[in-house]
Amino acid sequence: MKVNNTIVVSVGQAGNQIAASFWKTICQEHGIDSLTGQTSQGAEPRGNWSAFFSKLGDTSYVPRTVMVDLEPSVINNIRTSTGSLFNPANLISRSEGAGGNFAVGYLGEGREALPEVMARIESEVERCDNVGGIIVLQSTGGGTGSGLGSLIIEAIKERHPEFPVLSCAILPSPQVSSVVTEPYNTVFALNTLRRVADACLIFDNEALFQLAHRKWNIESPTVDDLNLLITEALAGLTASMRFSGFLTVEISLRELLTNLVPQPSLHFLMISFAPLTPPDRSKFEELGVEEMIRSLFDNGSVFAACSPMEGRFLSTAVLYRGVMDDKPLADAALAAIREQLPLTYWIPTAFKIGYVEQPGVAHRKSMVLLANNTEVARVLDRICHNFDKLWQRKAFANWYLNEGMSEDQINALRASAQELIQSYQVAEESGAKAKVQDSPEVAARSGTARPAADDSASRAAVSLRDLVDRRTGH
Fold it and tell me: What DSSP state is assigned to residue 432?
């Protein structure tokens, strides 16, 4: 069976900083030198290396990635600090930057950079035997991550609608904010993530800051600390795509999204990781498997500022990696926790488990939880509330209006975000009903039918394409 090839596209400052950390980690996991792309004594890399690397000649392995930013500093740092690991043609930067403005990334500088970006993505596609999907790393708070990130996702899906696209989106928080317009940028980007991406995995800076503070005992966590948390989760998430073995359940990106997205409109996922021990103590403080599983589902461990146990789990995937001496214990603990979860009664079996024998870099045993949970609406509502506080005073609105956006379009994008929130609220309310209400007999007597699938995705959500067409005279 062919290995699924995954391409990683990183956009903007945060997206590329996380990508640099991610590639360093998985190079280490596969036995590839993170400066030269070579292995020790020319040995074959560990695992299914072709899932994320292409082979150059007989000895070098190159990450399947395209990195792009509208300002040069981060890309230049990657060029100088990673040796000959990355294909230099795939490191793309401009000189102006987006200035924390979605409209510049989507309509201005970003649009000018798009042809070069897509040419490099196409080059990576041609190197693949079997494209399993594309992962986009982006921060929705910045102008490049939100604007150009949205533009790239739309261009990929227009050219390759058959490729599943997963956005790994870092949502903003006042705790680590550097741009006052982050709520604007995030709400505008949500429209594309809702309409076009196949799924969006959220990394909420609000929650990451608290995790680093409480779990890692860091008084004032830095961006590097938060990026390390994200890297551990991404390495665990992709482990089943990169390794196989006797017990390993290989889970492709396509299969993962098929199991986690019950309706097209409900595709925003949250993640947690265990054990959340400080990196410098990880080898000295190993948690038992039952304790790890309890931690995984604890409200205080999820990488989103919400309480999943107070919402409804629409679908769930638990990916266990490492030493398998206690697999029966893990199976029993997961079966027990499943009985305690607030599941949605109309999706009673959406609970997937995967095992990967290859341990991570820092932990002999670790676990990742991916959950499609209705509490994501609380995270999105917080962002929209911050948006409203700015927009009702038209604060900084001229930044976007001067780039070609109109007030009507901005109001439509805000309405699109509200529809997304409401679709999860509807799923939570319907999922909490007693199972007996779903029986045909009760439905017939009451004159009601089973809750209809949310059709907000099928309605024509607002598109930004008219903005681009108007600016280019098409």
Answer: T
Cis-peptide, bond into residue 275, ω within 30° of zero: yes
pLDDT in tens, 169-212: 999 987 777 789 999 999 999 999 999 999 999 999 989 999 99
287-311: pLDDT as tens digits: 888 889 999 999 889 999 999 999 9
Contact 430, 463 (CB under 8 A): no
User: pTM of this prediction?
Assistant: 0.91
229 Cβ contact list (under 8 Å, min separation 6) = 208, 211, 212, 273, 303
Q: Do residues 454 and 431 make contact, with C-beta atoms less than 8 angstroms apart?
A: no
CA–CA distance, 361 with 398 (Å, rounded to integer): 47
State the DSSP string of 357-393. -S--SS-SEEEEEEEEETTHHHHHHHHHHHHHHHHTT
| CA torsion through residues 462, 426, 256, 201, sign | positive
Residue 380 in contact with residue 416, Cβ under 8 Å?
no
Q: How far apart are CA 113 and CA 9, in angstroms?
A: 14
Residues sharing a CB contact under 8 Å with residue 55, sequence separation 6 or more, in sequence order: 61, 62
| Contact present, 330 and 289 (Cβ < 8 Å) | yes
- Spell out the residues 6+ positions from residue 136 whose beta carbon is closer than 8 angstroms to its own: 8, 9, 10, 11, 15, 149, 152, 153, 165, 166, 167, 168, 197
Cα distance between residue 120 and residue 158, in whole Å? 16
* Token reading at 76: 């230049």
The H-or-E segment that residue 82 falls in is: none
pLDDT, tens digit, 9 for 90 and up, residues 76-94: 999 999 999 999 999 999 9
Return the DSSP state at 51.
G
Two structure tokens written together for 14: 């945060």
**428 in active site:** no
d(CA 133, CA 124): 12
Q: Which residues does 105 contact at the CB level (< 8 Å), separation at least 6?
A: 12, 70, 98, 142, 143, 144, 145, 146, 147, 148, 149, 150, 151
Catalytic annotation, pick one of 109, 232, 255, 403: 255
Tokens of 330: 């893990």
